[in-house]
């Protein structure tokens, strides 16, 4: 199995420790084509995302010792048109466990002993947890505005957590400089394509649970880890004839950090340069998304709509969800806020699937 540079096409073994192409600096894609999806090939005796391993680039049985039972999260009917996929029902209370368990299983398979990663919090929690499970040393870099609860979780899993003054993008720069200097494995959810082979199981589960794909899908958009996984799975379903067209996909950003919204306005092939303002939606406050060009290609190819949510909607929407039993973190709230905003502006027909990505306790100050 090979990595292929997304820019110049250079190939490397997927066992490489190089975080990106050393010829041109492009990010890796994985040269892997999943078999035609078929529910009959799902291992229903495995209660984790690895029930879908027939359609994932699984190299050996490392996952068996690393999995914490992630995935298989319920879908609830929040109202007659809204379906919530409860992805905070995960070992580290966020959807990032889908990608982290696949990435760290890959690390175990190729003999990685120590990793570094940068995160706004949730991906760091996930990577730290699965590294702890796998016996791999782990160091996580987070920006200074990361929730103290997330920092505490990272450290509880035995990882070093370095808090960096500055933005999410500044944090990434510091971490990548360390990777370049020390040559350690960069277990990053943006750079490493194995992560998306985990997040695509979100759609696999939806199809297994509903036996169909809803007409509308809302996805939060920062670095694009869930969006890329969703599109990959839907492309597989198109190829398998499970669906005959893409559902309406609505990608959500914060008005305080909306490089994709601005790019689409100007029909740009690259994310816009934006001034990042403070936002409670820390998980998607990414001003320089490294897979931005790739994500915009998907946006234009599949007519994905991109919407920005104003900051003043976050807390009231969170309160309304909590009052109905859904206590989620601030970044998660933005997806439901976007649904309400979209309905007010344009209307929406049919069922809408919304991910509940992170638990509320992760963003509380106490």
TrEMBL record:
The keyword Lyase applies. CDD domains: Thr-synth_1. InterPro entries: Ser/Thr_Dehydratase, Ser/Thr_deHydtase_PyrdxlP-BS, TrpB-like_PALP, TrpB-like_PALP_sf. The keyword NADP does not apply. Keywords: Lyase, Pyridoxal phosphate. It comes from the Bacteria. Residues 66-358 form the Tryptophan synthase beta chain-like PALP domain. Its cofactor is pyridoxal 5'-phosphate. It comes from Pectinatus cerevisiiphilus. This is L-threonine synthase. One of its GO terms (biological process) is L-threonine catabolic process. GO terms for molecular function: L-serine ammonia-lyase activity; pyridoxal phosphate binding; threonine deaminase activity.
């Amino acid at each position: 199995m090979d990595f292929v540079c997304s820019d110049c096409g250079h190939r490397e073994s997927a066992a490489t420790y190089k975080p990106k192409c050393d010829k041109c600096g492009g990010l890796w894609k994985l040269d892997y084509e999943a078999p035609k999806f078929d529910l009959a090939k799902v291992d229903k005796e495995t209660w984790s995302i690895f029930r879908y391993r027939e359609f994932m680039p699984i190299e050996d049985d490392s996952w068996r010792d690393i999995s914490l039972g992630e995935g298989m999260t319920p879908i609830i009917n929040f109202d007659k048109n809204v379906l919530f996929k409860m992805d905070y029902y995960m070992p580290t209370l966020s959807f990032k466990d889908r990608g982290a368990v696949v990435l760290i299983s890959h690390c175990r398979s190729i003999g990685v002993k120590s990793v570094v990663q940068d995160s706004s919090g949730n991906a760091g929690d996930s990577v730290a947890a699965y590294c702890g499970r796998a016996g791999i040393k782990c160091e996580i870099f987070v920006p200074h505005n990361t929730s103290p609860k997330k920092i505490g979780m990272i450290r509880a899993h035995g990882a070093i957590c370095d808090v960096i003054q500055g933005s999410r993008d500044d944090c990434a720069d510091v971490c990548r400089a360390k990777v370049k200097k020390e040559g350690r494995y960069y277990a990053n959810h943006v750079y490493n394509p194995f992560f998306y082979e985990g997040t695509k199981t979100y759609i696999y589960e939806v199809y297994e649970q509903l036996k169909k794909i809803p007409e509308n899908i809302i996805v939060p958009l920062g670095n694009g880890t869930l969006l890329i996984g969703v599109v990959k799975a839907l492309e597989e379903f198109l190829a398998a004839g499970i669906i005959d067209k893409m559902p309406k996909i609505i990608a959500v950003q914060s008005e305080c950090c909306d490089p994709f919204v601005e790019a689409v306005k100007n029909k740009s092939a690259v994310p816009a340069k934006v001034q990042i303002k403070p936002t409670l939606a820390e998980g998607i406050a990414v001003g320089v998304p490294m897979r931005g060009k790739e994500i915009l290609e998907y946006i234009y190819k599949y007519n994905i709509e991109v919407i920005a949510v104003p900051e003043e909607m976050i807390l009231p929407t969170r309160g309304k969800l909590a009052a109905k039993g859904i206590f989620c973190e601030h970044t998660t709230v933005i997806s439901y806020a976007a649904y309400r905003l979209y309905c007010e502006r344009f209307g929406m027909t049919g069922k809408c699937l919304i991910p509940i990505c992170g638990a509320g306790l992760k963003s509380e100050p106490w």
